[in-house]
Design goal:
The protein is α+β, with helices and mostly antiparallel strands. The chain is built from five helices and five strands. The chain has one domain: NADH Oxidase (3-Layer(aba) Sandwich), CATH 3.40.109.10. Strands 1, 2, 3, 4 and 5 form a five-stranded antiparallel beta sheet that branches. The mean pLDDT is about 95.
């Protein structure tokens, strides 16, 4: 799939087949995540790949809206030890870029995915951190449900371009 096609045809998928996602594909998703730009190339992230049903159930329980059943859930976390101390808010940009790279890579590989926010909801951060057993200094940023789209998936590709949101000066 070409890059522009992937960008314009990606959609949020919330219904998945039970078919497993193989290790090579998971590694490709993680390589895509870590290829994201980050401020001063600090790469302030760690990625938890949730495969066990027990851990996935704990993540699902902690998410008020992310109640999806998928073969894997990737939880990108902020690694505070690599954040720029005087510009900490930049980690939001870094983790957003990594999360989007996972979504695009999943789509390009024929998978479906949906991004569910964890950060900056403190209760959700705490509950997800407990569910995945984060180390001290790691803060969950998002939960990305990933798998092969179910035949029942009704999500549609949307043309979101709006010329009113463009200012040419």
């Amino acid at each position: 799939m070409e890059t522009i096609e992937a960008l314009l045809t990606r959609k949020s998928v919330r219904s998945f087949k039970s078919q497993e996602v193989d290790e090579e594909t998971i590694n490709t998703l993680l390589k895509a995540a870590m290829a994201a730009p980050s401020a001063v190339n600090r790469q302030p992230w760690v990625f938890y790949v949730c495969k066990s049903q027990e851990v996935k159930n704990a993540v699902i329980k902690a998410m008020p809206f992310g109640k999806y059943k998928s073969p894997i859930i990737i939880v990108p976390c902020i690694d505070e030890s690599r954040a720029i101390p005087f510009m900490h808010d930049l980690v939001n940009c870094d983790l957003s870029a990594a999360t989007e790279n996972i979504l695009l890579a999943a789509h390009a590989l024929g998978l479906g995915a949906v991004w569910c926010a964890v950060y900056p909801d403190k209760k959700r951060e705490k509950d997800i951190a407990t569910a995945i057993k984060c180390k001290k200094g790691e803060t969950p940023f998002s939960a990305i449900y990933i798998g092969f789209p179910d035949d029942e998936d009704k999500s549609k590709v949307k043309d979101k371009y709006n010329h009113k949101n463009v200012v040419i000066i």
